[in-house]
Structures are given as structure tokens and as C-alpha cells.
Amino acid sequence: MSRTIRWPRLIIVTLIAAIGIAGFTSLGIWQVKRLHWKLELIERVDSRIHADPVPAPGPEAWPAITAEDDEYTRVTLTGRFLNDEEVMIYTPSDYGPADYVLTPLERDDGTIVMVNRGVVPLERAQSGDFARVEGKTTVTGLLRMSEDKGWLFSRDNNPDAQMWYRRDIGSITEAKGFERAAPYFVDAEKTGSEGWPRGGQTVVSFRNSHLSYALTWFALGVLVLSGYVLILRQELRSR
Q1: Taken in order 93, 95, 96, 97, is the CA torsion positive or negative?
Q2: Is the separation of the CB atoms in 184 and 70 below 8 Å?
Q3: 99/184 Cα distance (integer angstroms)
Q4: Tell me: the pLDDT tens digits for 163-193?
């Protein structure tokens, strides 16, 4: 004798399947959108870093600077390094443990732009065994946004002790008492010199796994749909 369909069970299974399929499909679509955004970002950054340098933005442009519109733009600026105000920021590097040498550059109009002159191996950095630039100089590099937020396990800057663990330009320039300081910094390009600091350390690479993530979410949606179809067929056969 055939039995009736177990409606409460089927309704619950249907709801779970609908939620699963809708959720996984939505995640897949979101990853596809992220994929297009990432490809556009890579293309935009690649065009900027290979373009001819433009003058670094002045005070009138500072309020409108954004990561999307300005970061990784190749810029040039002229001024004098305030070497007595340089800041060391620890970083792992191709040369082992090292420090970034972040030095304020004062332009003719009195504004300050922090310049990441490059890395120096940790022992050299701590002993001050690296070159400084005296007098008027011109720097070419990539415009970078301030690192206001740290990573999950990164240490917070300690302005009172003049100890810095990330390139948070706002807190650094405030602690130094610079009233007219740019909200960005410039990663100096590598020069022909093999001395220290060594510029050209900007990492311009973007992880792009969105396609594989999208395929995974869509596959899970298909898996849930297949399971639901099997259960539905079993219920219909049992009538």
C-alpha cells in the first residue's frame, strides 16, 4: 500500500533548499561582481604606475584625494628633507628584517609630504648607518594612502614614545607638529644607487581568486538543488 507524502518534512526540506540555493547563488553573483571590480583595479593601477609623473597634489587638492582616484599615481615633488624628523617603521623585506625610512620633505610653499625613501636592514637602520640627502632635491614615486588602520595582529603606533609600526601619516605628522602636512605619503622609486635606503619597495600585486570562489558558490548551489530533487523524487515515488 502506498503512503502519503510527508508534507511537514517536505516543506522544511523545501525551505532549507530554497535558502541554500538563494544564498549560494547570491554569493556567486557577488564574487563575479568582485572579479570585474578587481580586474578594473588591476588595469587602473597598472596604467598609473607606468605613466609619466605628475606634480604631487598640493593643499587645495588634499580634501578630494581618495584611494580609488589617486593611489599609485606616479608623482614628483621637490623640496628639502628634514632628516632630523625621520621616522623608522619596521617591515619584513627581501633583505630580511628592515625599517622603512619615512622622512618629511618640506616644499617651497612650506607644506610637508612624508616620503618613504625605502628600506634599510634593521641593524643599519638602528645604528643610523645609511645615507641622508642634504639640500634641495626632487623625488619621484608613487602616491600612497595613509595606513590609518592596522592588520589583525599589528601593533598600534605609540606617538608619545615616537614608536611607529605602520605608516599612519595623520598620527605621525601630528606628533611631529607639522601643521600643513599632506594626508598621503610617497613611496620613492628605486634609484641607480645600491646604497641604503633602497627605494622601489612598493608591492603592486592584488590577489584575484574571485573566479574560483564564484565557481565554488555556484557549485554548492547546484549541489543543494540536486539533493532537493532527489528527496522530492523519493517522496513522489512513495505515494
Answers
A1: negative
A2: yes
A3: 19
A4: 777 888 988 898 889 989 999 999 998 877 7
